[in-house]
Amino acid sequence: MTIDTVIEKLRRTEPWNALPESAWLDLCRVARPMAIPKHKIVFHQAEQGVGLYFVISGLLKLSKTTSQGKDTVISLAQPGDIVGEQLLSATGCYAYRAQTLAECVLLEIDADWVQHTAHQCPAFGWTLCRYLLDRLHKAEERLLRYRFNLTRQRIGFFLKEMAHHHAYTLANGEIEIRLPLTHELISEMVNVSRQQVTTILKQWAREGIIRYSRQRILLCKPERL
Q1: d(CA 196, CA 192)
Q2: Are residues 177 and 129 in the same domain?
Q3: Structural domain of residue 127, as residue ranges?
């Protein structure tokens, strides 16, 4: 994917669509598209970095290791998301680990340039701030859904969220999620055991609500999730 193709995508995506026309040529100079294979680490927690990343395609797992050594998945980054935004703070290091779950195309953008441009262009700075606040709000809503609902509801919420970004509607009306969503990954995302995920998916398959394999999940009756 060429830088020109990526730039055209950015022009239609928040917060980049708030950049003044004069900034785009400079952005091409400080941005670098890259294709990263599946199961590769993009950056580590506490690593010093120079660039944040815009997700063009693919899926990344963002996880954090606590002081007790426990690894926790905090989010999945999808097309249109920004990861590594902590470099805009004074610490200058990433706050979590980013790993690809599928082949990804990312655009690395120099963090100093983003920070400088946000100061020089208040419209872009405010749009970037609003984007990050909206994402924080969505993360809080997701936390509440996964904390205060039953296991079945948590898994249903997650599958419908994935379907919103990574699904195709087939001719028979079924919704196909074309992602390698392992039982372990689902359990990490909704904070239940892997065995609970397996039990509920098997139950839904018997009831005709879903069909699934290692590579995809078909939502046959999504209204029942």
Answers
A1: 7
A2: no
A3: 3-146
Tens digits of residue pLDDT in 141-189:
888 887 788 899 999 999 988 888 778 888 888 899 877 788 988 998 8
**What are residue 41's DSSP bridge partners?**
99
Instruction: State whether 57 and 139 are in the same domain.
Output: yes
Q: Residues 153, 111: one domain?
A: no
| C-alpha dist (Å) from residue 18 to 13, 109, 111, 114, 181 | 9, 16, 17, 12, 34
Give the Cβ contact number of residue 149 at 10 Å: 14
Sign of CA dihedral 156, 97, 176, 180: negative
- The pLDDT of 70-82, averaged and rounded, is 88
What is the DSSP secondary structure assignment for residue 85, as one 8-state letter?
Answer: G
Q: In the beta sheet, which residues pair with residue 185?
A: none
On whether the pTM is more than 0.90, the answer is no
Mean pLDDT of 212-221: 86
Rounded to whole angstroms, the Cα distance separating 135 from 138 reads 5
128 and 161 share one domain: no
How many CA atoms, within 13 angstroms, populate the side-chain half-sphere of residue 131? 19
- Radius of gyration (Cα) for the chain, nearest Å? 19
